[in-house]
Amino acid sequence: MAGFLDNFRWPECECIDWSERRNAVASVVAGVLFFTGWWIMIDAAVVYPKPEQLNHAFHTCGVFSTLAFFMINAVSNAQVRGDSYESGCLGRTGARVWLFIGFMLMFGSLIASMWILFGAYVTQNTDVYPGLAVFFQNALIFFSTLIYKFGRTEELWT
Amino acid sequence: MKWSAVCESRSASGITRFAGVCIRERALISLSFGGAIGLMFLMLGCALPIYNQYWPLFVLFFYILSPIPYCIARRLVDDTDAMSNACKELAIFLTTGIVVSAFGLPIVFARAHLIEWGACALVLTGNTVIFATILGFFLVFGSNDDFSWQQW
After folding, report:
1. Which residue ranges run through the membrane (chain A) (predicted)?
2. At a CB cut-off of 8 Å and minimum separation 6, what does A143 contact?
């Protein structure tokens, strides 16, 4: 009884070699998440056009998240480790600082979006959808960044 | 006669004909049929008398934009570089974004009451067919090694 699932194996599917397509799948998933986040925000801005319902300053969270996405994915893991042949224009330490600032912007935007959701919508007894839209935009961009950064492998020879 | 000569000179796998017609020619015909069906759905979503709103034609912009990142990435880099992988993955990311945008735009239009939800459903169906056609085009015609712009 204790180990009756130990010998369970998933059914074999040999038609597609997923290990070779890992980078493409990660890129597709990251793209879907990122742009779905933006379209959720566009939808909220269209359905709630008045500034009392969705303050236009709340768009800055999404903008900073996007900026952080591009900052985080601009440096490769090899540059940060110091492994690549050329050191790039910032060097290894510069790459680490860049990545650090990128992650700080990303986490800051995520926390700001949660603050907006709870501070400006949930506690104010108004329609909560715009706050949810800001939160989901930033959460989806955050997960998209993680998948795009860590879901792809940089090895040329697997 | 000329098609068969072209067909046999291009075959790498030995399978060039299906029911007497070159596979690539058959694929071209079915892909263009698919494209026509997709555009038909789009035009139905705009031009039916109960809808009569031409806002969904903006998705044509996304249809035209969608092959561009991948084509640029393929022309710009060669195949055995680490940078080429990053470029191709960025192209796949942007292409996915364009596809998602083409699905999101009709939904936002319907939420803003510019078009009806029935028109939105027709446009989304047309989107699916068109993007499947574009994907099929790239799978069938895009991945041979002697790809050149003078193919036809």
Report:
1. 24-42, 57-76, 97-122, 128-148
2. A33
- Does A126 reside within a domain? yes
Q: Are B54 and B32 in contact (CB under 8 A)?
A: no
Domain enclosing residue A66, as ranges: 21-150
Residue A11 in domain = no
Interface list for B 4-63 with A (CB within 8 A)? none
Strand partners, B17: B22
pLDDT of B152 over the 50 cut: no
Domain total for chain A?
1
Q: Name the nearest CA neighbour of A24 among B104, B138, B106, B36.
A: B138
Q: Give the chain A residue whose CA is nearest to the CA of B81.
A: A156
- Supply the pLDDT for residue B151: 45
∠ CA B116-B117-B123, rounded to 5°: 95
Region B123-150 average pLDDT: 80
- For residue A2, being part of any structural domain is answered with no
